[in-house]
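Q: What residues go here?
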């Protein structure tokens, strides 16, 4: 019985250990298009440069700017431009309202989409807006759990359950 439990524990450890190592070293391809802004934070009335790559040469491209909205509820600004011979664009966008603004670049031919965000602070030239709302940037507040840690916790849990089941079986056999 002890040999069976040891073999089971060893097999589970090898299964979860090898899967973790393979998963941890796997490479994932980067998306073809990337959207980059020159500044992630700007004062109201300020301008940032929006750059994108991965488009077709000369492709008509739509740049949309939405304040605190998803693409489904878009109520922002639209700018149409064309990609250069290398499939890149670079356009300046001016922001007049406070808040987080989402910039989406869509190629009309390829359908490629990329998104970046800009936080606009200050009150710009607007007078009589009342008290300022405190802007909080939570973009770094998300956390990710390493898949290897999840596999290790799952493997440890299975080993614990297997050990408990073996102990119960051994106790019943000896009774």
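A:
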């Amino acid at each position: 019985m002890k040999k069976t439990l040891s073999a089971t524990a060893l097999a589970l450890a090898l299964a979860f250990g090898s899967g973790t190592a393979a998963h941890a070293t796997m490479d994932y391809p980067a998306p073809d298009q990337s959207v980059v802004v020159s500044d992630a934070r700007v004062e109201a009335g300020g301008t940032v440069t929006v750059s994108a790559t991965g488009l077709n040469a000369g492709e008509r491209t739509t740049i949309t700017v939405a304040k605190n909205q998803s693409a489904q509820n878009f109520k922002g600004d639209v700018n149409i431009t064309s990609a250069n011979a290398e499939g890149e664009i670079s356009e300046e966008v001016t922001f007049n309202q406070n808040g987080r603004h989402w910039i989406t670049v869509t190629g009309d031919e390829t359908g490629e989409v990329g998104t970046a965000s800009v936080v606009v602070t200050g009150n710009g030239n607007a007078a009589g807006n009342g008290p300022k709302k405190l802007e909080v940037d939570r973009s770094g507040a998300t956390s990710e759990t390493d898949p290897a840690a999840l596999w290790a916790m799952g493997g440890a849990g299975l080993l614990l359950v297997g050990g408990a089941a073996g102990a119960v079986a051994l106790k019943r056999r000896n009774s």
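A: Context that may help when evaluating the design: Residues 58 and 83 are 5 Å apart (CA to CA). The first strand starts at residue 34 and ends at 37.
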